[in-house]
Amino acid sequence: MKTKLFITALLLGGLLTLGWSQNTGKPARQVDKSFDFDNNKELYLYLKFAKNIKIKTWSQNKVQVKVSVDINGGKDNEKYSLTGEKLTDRFEIRSRIKDFSKITKTLVVFNGDNDTYFSYGNNTSWSDEDGRYYMNGSFLLSSINYEISIPANTKKLRIKTISGNVEMDYPKDCQLHARSVSGFIDVSIPSNQKADIETRSYMGDVFSDLSVKTPSFGDKSYRRIGGRARIKGTLNGGGVRIYLKTHKGNIYLRKKK
Fold this sequence. Notes:
By secondary structure, the chain is an all-beta fold. It has one helix at 9-13; strands at residues 5-7, 29-36, 42-46, 52-58, 62-71, 80-86, 90-97, 105-106, 109-111, 114-116, 125-127, 133-135, 139-140, 142-151, 156-161, 165-169, 175-180, 185-189, 195-201, 206-208, 212-213, 223-225, 228-235, 240-246, 251-255. The protein is built from one helix and 25 strands. The strands form five sheets. Strands 3, 6, 7, 15, 17, 19, 21, 22, 23 and 24 form a ten-stranded mixed β-sheet that branches. A nine-stranded mixed β-sheet has the order 1-20-25-18-16-4-14-5-2. Strands 8-13 form a two-stranded parallel sheet. The two termini are 30 Å apart.
């Protein structure tokens, strides 16, 4: 699929947000954690498996993470964990699923507001974040949803996920690096923000109602090889770096209301 940057508010006006509900036999497990955060360090959110990751800013110098966890219909909910770690240059919040290799790989297919899981019998397949494909494996069914509050003065933010859709309010003047393999990335940015923006989507499109200045297709900063594309642009003359990458999803740059 050809990747383009569409500067139009009309396309964004009709977007739908995926629902949070899942039909399972047991209630989802709720996790609620808060972490002290020094905004002089980078905040790194490594949430490997997720359905939706919703991020908003607030006035507190803490990071609050609320998670709804459903793994294998509730049977393996307790295998999920969320930890925070202070490192020299960053504060890292990481999710884990214990015994992941024993409870198999993940396949999540969305159908409207509900999740539909497909089983292919002995002809199953799964691809990891490096593009390697596995055949004839079993699959873990998961619906893990995040609501995250981060300080409004966060200066560096890195987000990494395999299956998660990322939907976030952009902290002003924040250096942002967000990557999802199969999910979309949706960022609301103040219209007066000065930024250097780079987006990459291997199989999706890029949409924006911001006044992003992009080069002509003949410029070296726009490249397309097969289905792959890289688009670079500036907002209000350039400034902090915003880098967004997804392999299979769309990218949305919205004007923050």
